[in-house]
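can u do me a favor
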């Protein structure tokens, strides 16, 4: 099969044009299909190439996280237990039925870990003097927090996982006694 590159015909064996796909997950097999179209709109042969993505090696840091206080709609505080060797902590905090959790991160901890470790956006957890950071819950319901420890080489750990139920706070009630 032949492909056109800048007006020149090249064979698939000579193709060096990089192709990027940010949705690839490590340890999977995929096919890349390519076809050239000439100036007259005629299609060339389809070139197919199977490839696999490499395994991601997480660092061995073991991070843990806990909710500091009640889970509320708004800012929530979380406490991270510091880990020797961590230069930064990263996190994601999503409602479990949100598009970001179910689609962008795949809806499972294992898939989310791989996607975040290989480039999907996460936030930096800026710890205060009590090793706490804040994350915002925009609505009530079930949320999931994943916290990662990043080492000096930029490699992330497996996630510390915390399931959080953000409930509506009705305030304080006082019981009235019958007279």
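np, heres the sequence
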């Amino acid at each position: 099969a032949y492909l056109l590159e800048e007006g020149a015909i090249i064979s698939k064996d000579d193709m060096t044009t990089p192709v990027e796909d940010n949705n690839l997950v490590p340890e999977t097999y995929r096919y890349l299909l390519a076809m050239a179209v000439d100036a007259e709109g005629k299609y060339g042969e389809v070139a197919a190439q199977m490839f696999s993505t490499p395994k991601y090696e997480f660092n061995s840091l073991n991070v843990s996280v806990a909710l500091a206080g009640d889970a509320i709609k708004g800012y929530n505080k979380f406490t991270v237990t510091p880990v020797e060797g961590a230069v930064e902590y990263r996190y994601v905090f999503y409602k479990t039925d949100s598009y970001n959790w179910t689609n962008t991160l795949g809806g499972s901890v294992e898939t989310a870990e791989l996607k975040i470790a290989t480039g999907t956006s996460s936030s930096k957890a800026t710890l205060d003097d009590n090793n706490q950071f804040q994350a915002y819950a925009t609505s009530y319901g079930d949320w999931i927090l994943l916290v990662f420890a990043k080492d000096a080489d930029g490699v992330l750990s497996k996630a510390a996982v915390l399931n959080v139920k953000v409930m509506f706070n009705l305030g304080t009630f006082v019981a009235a006694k019958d007279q």
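Residues 172 and 178 are 19 Å apart (CA to CA). hope that helps!!
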